[in-house]
Amino acid sequence: MTSSTSPLTTDLYELNMIQAYLDQAEDKEAVFEFFVRRLPARRGFLLAAGLADALDFLETLLFSKADIEWLKSTGRFRKNLLDYLSGFRFTGDVHAIPEGTVCFPNEPLLRITAPLLQAQLLETRLTNILHFQSLIASKAARMVLAAPGKTLADFGLRTAHGAEAGLYSARASYIAGFSGAANVLAGERYDIPSSAPWPTRLCRCTTTRCKRSRISRARGRRA
Fold it and tell me: Which helix (H) or strand (E) element contains residue 72?
């Protein structure tokens, strides 16, 4: 797993809660839902996105020996938690609306039904994935509606808050109706058509070269 999908990509309080559940022998079935309570002013809808990456996270989530050793070294957790995480695999059920679906406040985008300990561990990272991609997809959808018939492409990697945000932005905007993305990795990982604007620096360099050539020829004629 990459650092961005490490099982340690979670909040400490999730592990603290699992520790408490284990100490109390509490592991009933639980249902966790991801939804938005209300929309900003003048925003009538959301566009769901992030499901594919969320499912990939669930399918590949496991703790390595190095992860367990690091958790042990912190001195925060007891053996029962470390043993539980050592054998962790997600066994619950997932219900979700398809990506690209228009959705509204208080409408679950995703529902997890699983043993309480499992559902608790997933909360932070699933919220992280679904929130960001749905946010970008919703903004991109409004751009598509505002520019009917125009070709739109994502060019946000260089200003994104990290490489993963740039990758997720390309994917979410493509779901919303953009034609492609400048991010090369998005093309390799998500099969998004690659797109590039005309490079301003190349234009300037070419223009400067042409000016120098004309000046050189003019000097040659005067000589």
Answer: helix 65-74
- Residues in contact with 114: Cβ distance below 8 Å, sequence separation at least 6, in sequence order: 29, 30, 32, 90, 91, 92, 93, 122
For residue range 199-217, what is the model confidence (pLDDT) as tens digits? 666 666 665 555 555 555 5
> pLDDT (tens digit, 9 = 90+) per residue, 112-152?
999 999 999 999 999 999 999 999 999 999 999 999 999 99
Alpha carbon distance 54, 125 (integer Å): 8
Q: CB–CB of 16/126 below 8 Å?
A: no
Helices 12-23 + 116-146 axis angle, to 10: 150
Enumerate domains of the chain plus CATH numbers. Answer: 1-142 (3.20.140.10), 147-223 (3.20.20.70)
The pTM score is 0.84
